[in-house]
C-alpha cells in the first residue's frame, strides 16, 4: 500500500472537492480527509486544519503543480492575489486567499489564531 501525502488544505469543503475532482480529471488519484467533520460543522475547519487533499506519494509533484497553476489562474482572473505574511506567533510563512483579508485565521504551523492583514 502506498503512503498518502497531503498536498493541500482547504477551509471549505466545496473548494477541496473542486481541487480533488480537478486532480482526478488529470489522472491523479486523490482523496479527501476530514471532509465529513467539516460537512457536519464547518466552523471546525480552522481547528482541525481544514479539509486535506491527499494523493499517493509518487503523484505529489504533479498534484502540487496542478494546484499551484490553478491558484495562479484564479489570481490572474482578478480574484485577488493571496495574502502572504509571517505568523506573529511562530514566525513561519502563511498564505490566505484575498477574501480572508482583515479576518482571523488559524496558523497551520502552530495552531494559534492570527490576524490577517488588511
From TrEMBL:
Residue intervals of the DUF2007 domain: 14-71
Database matches in Pfam families: DUF2007
InterPro entries (UniProt xref): DUF2007 (IPR018551), N-reg_PII-like_a/b (IPR011322)
SUPFAM superfamilies, per database record: GlnB-like
Name listed for the protein in its UniProt record: DUF2007 domain-containing protein
Organism of provenance: Aureliella helgolandensis
